[in-house]
Amino acid sequence: MDTTPLPHWRRNIYLFLTSQFLSGITSMVVQYAIVWYLTKQTGSATVLSFATLLGMLPMVLLSPFVGPFVDRWNKKALLIIPDIIAAIFAIILSITGTLLPSYPLWLIFISLLVRSIAQTFQMPTIQSILPIMVPQKELTKINGQLGMVQSANMVIAPALGAFLFASVPINWLILLDVLGAAIGITLLVFVTIPEHPVIDEKVHVLADAKFGLDKLRQTKGLWAITMTGAAFTLMFMPAASLYPLMTMGYFHGNVGQAGLIEAIYSVGMLVGGTIIGLFGNWPDRMKPILWATVAMGITFGGSGLLPGNHTGFVWFVVLNSLAGVVTPFYSTLLMSMIQQSFPAEQLGRILGVLNSMMSITGPVGLIFAGPLADTIGVEKLFIIGGIGSLVCGFAMWIMPSARHFDQELQAKTAATVVEEPSE
């Protein structure tokens, strides 16, 4: 198939990134507001873990079966329709909050589940269209710039969310999701997304999911990285889901400080994404991935060793800013390698399986996260997560297929690359 970028690809991709920024920020403000509402109303690690579990389950269970539709259906529709559905549920949630004195937990959980299902369709769609919207040689940088956009959202959203959560009733705050959907859909209308010639081909869900799994398993180094990433998620996700409780419970902070931690982490991610976006063409991307995994282990585990007082919170801010800087080096560089490893028309099916494999252990960890945090303390989960990250980094380093994967990939790409037009 022809994956030659559009003549004005740069203008097109930046319009797309702008739509992701403006629509994403409203969605994230609402997401933070819901989490803080649960934290304030219940103070329960179990409730927060269950809420995060609902957010992850669709990614784990549906991703392998969503991939075939991503490869064949209209990409723009796959980005727009989930936004409309999420906006409808936001309106339902807002009306319920207006009529009742407090939200039933079951309704909040259903809302979180619907938002996650929408993201399960949108995430592999975005991941699969980037390689057909930009030249191959620019892919790592554009992934870094997408990471910058997502990080910028995470910088602004916690601070804005904390301010709005304190000053605007949550039933009105939730309507920001509707505004975000309207902005995102309007901008996407003007974005050109090349479509695959297999768009009308019949979907065979189980066979296509098996196809994605087989392709992934045949790529030995990437399969090793995927398995290591699944182990990392198992160790890391339980504590990551309890950030608000760490701030408001262990450090005795408030909603504003919980928002500050989220913003500080995201500022770090913005810095890391900026570095990748400007200097992303490394000859071996596995080296920064390995160092990032080690750094995340040190900063995350160190957070769990801090005293539960104001001084400890200050160091928590410092460690999370450093953790934020290194996070994009793992996620962004890995995604760029995946996108360059397979033909664009197969990416939806492969990414669906890969997203599921990388996420599947998260719910397992989350099942135990709440009860464990309530029993041994939330800070102990941060120590466990830090140790797990270090172990996963060491595991990738000692496996030659993982350690040398990008060098072999870039050598193969250099041998087959054709001259691409650029602006």
UniProtKB/TrEMBL annotation:
It comes from the Bacteria. Residues 12-403 form the Major facilitator superfamily (MFS) profile domain. The chain crosses the membrane at residues 12-35, 47-70, 77-97, 142-166, 172-193, 222-243, 263-282, 289-307, 313-338, 350-369, 381-399. It is found in: Cell membrane. Keywords: Cell membrane, Membrane, Transmembrane, Transmembrane helix, Transport. InterPro entries: MFS (IPR011701), MFS_dom (IPR020846), MFS_trans_sf (IPR036259). Signal peptide: none annotated. The keyword Membrane applies. GO terms for molecular function: transmembrane transporter activity. It is a multi-pass membrane protein. GO terms for cellular component: plasma membrane. PANTHER family: INTEGRAL MEMBRANE EFFLUX PROTEIN-RELATED, MAJOR FACILITATOR SUPERFAMILY ASSOCIATED DOMAIN-CONTAINING PROTEIN. This is Multidrug efflux pump protein.
